[in-house]
Write a structure and sequence with these properties.
Helix content is about 30%, strand content about 20%. The chain has 20 helices and 31 strands.
């Protein structure tokens, strides 16, 4: 290294700080060797202890280490550097959520080996035996195998996961077909870049309201720059068609697009519509992707070849090379909140990312969140409105069934008006849907002799009976156990009674009442395997199902032309408990479920079974008064200084025994700062006082809207010295109150 005069401060171009995807306090300094050209944002490999890890050059060196202590960067990866806007986003999220920046960077660098050069991958081509089977009359091919053969016969070799996805079967089917000689393994050069969606293809002609909304979004995309637009339209109004037009405009400009959805597994119809509209499917990003696919997609996102990514919340951290538009569909959906690891709200952070990268973002919903509604009212967000369903379709009529007057028979859960409506619907050759947000057979099992209730040993929760798979389950920790033969408390045999319904029990009742009806269950535990959802949706569309019974997985986005009746079995279910958004969420969920009815020519009706017909949620649903409901909700939250008018953070102090948790919570409370503008509630046992064997005590911090919440919490956490066995989880803007 050249000598520097001792009295001149070195420029320090020979050292940089590198952020590693680990929960460390900050970035570490490394030496740049003479043969390296390093820029901020470069992906590099550096030594850490005895390991060598990939990280990102974050900026100039920060500590003044002696030359001897400084280790050299080992390698620079040949991958486009992380853009400045994404580095600032990582820092911003870390700062906001009170997590280590490296823990946030880990979400960007979620595929460890994606930085390595691309390798050849194994693909499968059609073998001669496969070609013969495809044309033979009596080949005995199962439909999935036939689909696979048709795909490779036409489109050529492809990877197992790609084929499995396109043929809607498991990857095991592909491997089995290779083993029996229908397919031949071949070496593909590397995962092929995703096909480019064609923006020149035209979508359906838009209605005039759709046209106006689309034109405005297209204008914003072309103009560029930050701006948030709420696309507000009733279910079935064509919001998807409208934002497709905005996507086309971004593609025309050569930019990339990110579409965030609450749950990809529930979005097969949307993906199919995208492929029909643009002649190619979007790249997908969610937790069920195979490793090879994740790796390939990450790289193609980074080098700009993946043009449209449709993903779950984690897609927000992908290293887009040239992002031009973000769409958040179903923006009100609570599953955008990530509840473990880095706790963040993907919709809110998407707005932050758009603002840092200066690009337009579209929030889409038929039932916008109060947060977004208030931002529209204050002029921070623009709003585009689609007031009516597309074409001939009408919004369903929503009727409230007063369960105090319309009692079902004992041990039954469907009221006379709902049974009557189901009978009429089936007689007319139409489809019905029963919605109950509860998996399993019964939510509570108790002993008839002594009243003992079966409870989870690890959580403050009842065990839920599941008859299809047999046994009892805890829906919080996953604990399972067979139904005990005798009561563990009094020893009585065969004394257990199921209390209340789950979807399995509704299926039983429906079968008893309508023995001819073809019934299917749709819940996260009855849909096994990645394609179960798609297959079930197809069966519903082909009208091989008369009554669909399910949980909220059924509420989202699906479009069933023959579905004309929706029965909400327990409309009150979400209203209890200490969730500040209980009413808002129940309104959104039930509105969305009701919106499944009457999406085509035939008019639909939704019946809400409730013991609280006077409740504001039921009244607003029945009178289709969303805006009135939101206004009342806003008033009560403003009065209490609750979000979105004030700010909230939840802190959960937990330990593995109850005494330790109490002691830690009290010690923590003693350190609480008393600062103007903040109110600290607690400690109190969290509603789930025990979860996965840990005892939980909760604090809620209420703050005025512009109070420095993070700084206050940081000071508090730093002052509190708690034993290592005690955990404090910080949740800024909590959505979960368990
Ligand atoms: P939303 O997203 O608002 O619920 P969708 O975009 O899913 O509404 O539209 C509902 C249905 O109406 C879909 O089947 C869609 O294909 C159809 N549709 C919407 N707009 C048009 C249009 N302009 N031309 C033809 N079909 C349309
Ligand atoms: Zn449990």
């Amino acid at each position: 290294m050249p000598e520097r005069p001792a009295n001149v401060e070195p420029a320090r171009a020979d050292r940089v700080s590198v952020l590693l995807p680990l929960p460390l306090a900050g970035a570490y300094d490394y030496r740049v060797t003479d043969d390296m050209r390093i820029a901020t944002g470069d992906f590099v490999r550096v030594p850490l202890g005895r390991r060598r890890l990939a990280g990102v050059v974050w900026g100039p060196a920060c500590a003044d280490l002696t030359e001897a202590k400084l280790k050299p960067i080992a390698e620079v990866f040949a991958v486009p550097p992380l853009r400045d806007e994404l580095r600032r986003f990582v820092d911003w999220v870390a700062n906001y959520t009170l997590t280590a920046p490296g823990a946030v960077l880990k979400m960007t660098m979620s595929v460890a080996d994606a930085l390595e050069p691309r390798r050849a991958v194994t693909g499968y081509a059609i073998a001669d035996a496969g070609r013969r089977a495809l044309v033979a009359a009596d080949s005995g091919l199962t439909p999935p195998r036939r689909r696979v053969l048709a795909l490779v016969g036409e489109g050529g070799a492809a990877t197992a996961s790609d084929l499995a996805q396109r043929a809607a079967c498991g990857a095991g089917v592909i491997k089995a077909m290779a083993a029996t000689g229908l397919l031949t393994p071949v070496s593909l050069p590397a995962a092929l870049p995703p096909p480019v969606p064609d923006w020149r293809l035209s979508g359906p002609p838009l209605s005039s309201a759709q046209e106006i909304a689309a034109a405005e979004l297209i204008r914003k995309v072309r103009q560029g720059g930050f701006g948030v637009t709420l696309l507000d339209g009733v279910t079935g109004s064509g919001k998807t068609e409208v934002y497709f037009a905005a996507i086309a405009a971004a593609l025309e400009r050569g930019r990339q697009v990110l579409v965030l959805l609450p749950e990809i597994a529930l979005s097969t119809q949307l993906l199919k519509r995208f492929a029909d509209r643009f002649g190619a499917p979007p790249a997908l990003w969610h937790s069920d992707l195979g490793h090879a696919q994740r790796r390939a997609t990450w790289r193609y996102v980074a080098d700009g070849q993946a043009r449209v990514v449709v993903g779950a919340r984690s897609a927000l951290f992908l290293p887009f090379r040239d992002l031009g538009l973000i769409v958040v569909d179903e923006e009100h959906d609570a599953s955008f909140k990530q509840e473990d690891g880095v706790i963040y709200h993907a919709r809110d952070m998407a707005v932050v990312r758009a603002s840092l990268a200066r690009l337009p973002i579209v929030l889409v919903s038929a039932t916008p969140s109060l947060e977004t509604t208030i931002n529209v009212q204050s002029g921070r967000y623009a709003r585009l409105h689609l007031p009516a369903r597309h074409g001939m379709a009408r919004l369903p009529e929503i009727r409230v069934v007063d369960m105090r007057k319309q009692k079902p028979e004992r041990q039954r859960f469907l009221s006379p008006p709902l049974v009557q409506a189901m009978g009429d619907t089936l007689a007319a050759g139409e489809q019905a849907m029963l919605f109950l947000n509860r998996r399993g057979y019964a939510p509570l099992t108790l002993c008839r002799e002594c009243g003992h209730r079966l409870q989870c040993p690890n959580c403050t929760a009842w065990l839920v009976e599941h008859r299809r798979v047999g046994g009892l389950q805890c829906h919080h920790c996953g604990f399972t156990t067979p139904m005990p033969p005798t009561c563990p408390n009094c020893g009585a045999a065969g004394s257990f009674a199921a209390c209340g319904p789950g979807v399995e029990r509704l299926a039983e009742e429906t079968t008893q009442r309508f023995p001819q009806a073809r019934i299917a269950l749709m819940a996260s535990d009855t849909l096994v395997g990645p394609h179960a959802m798609a297959e079930l949706l197809e069966r519903v569309e082909r009208h091989e199902i008369d009554v669909l019974i399910g949980t909220q997985v059924m509420a989202k986005g699906h479009h069933f032309p023959m579905l004309t009746l929706v029965g909400v079995v327990d409309a009150d279910l979400g209203l209890s408990g200490g969730d500040l958004r209980a009413a808002e969420r129940t309104f959104q969920l039930l509105h969305q479920v009701a919106g499944r009815a009457g999406r085509a020519e035939r008019p639909g009706v939704a019946l809400l079974q409730t013991y609280m017909p006077e409740h504001s949620v039921m009244r607003a649903l029945a009178s289709d008064d969303r805006d009135g409901f939101l206004a009342a909700e806003a008033t009560s939250r403003r009065e209490g200084n609750w979000p979105p008018f004030g700010r909230l953070a939840a802190l959960i102090v937990s330990a593995s025994d109850a005494d330790a948790a109490d002691r830690a919570a009290r010690a923590f409370a003693r350190q609480a700062p008393h600062i103007e503008g903040f109110e600290i509630l607690g400690p109190a046992p969290a509603p789930l006082a025990m979860l996965r064997g840990r005892y939980r005590r909760r604090f809620l911090v209420k703050a005025r809207r512009y109070a420095p919440l993070q700084a206050m919490l940081r000071g508090w956490l730093a002052a509190a010295k708690l034993p290592a066995s005690v955990r404090v989880q910080v949740d800024i803007d909590p959505y979960s109150f368990i």
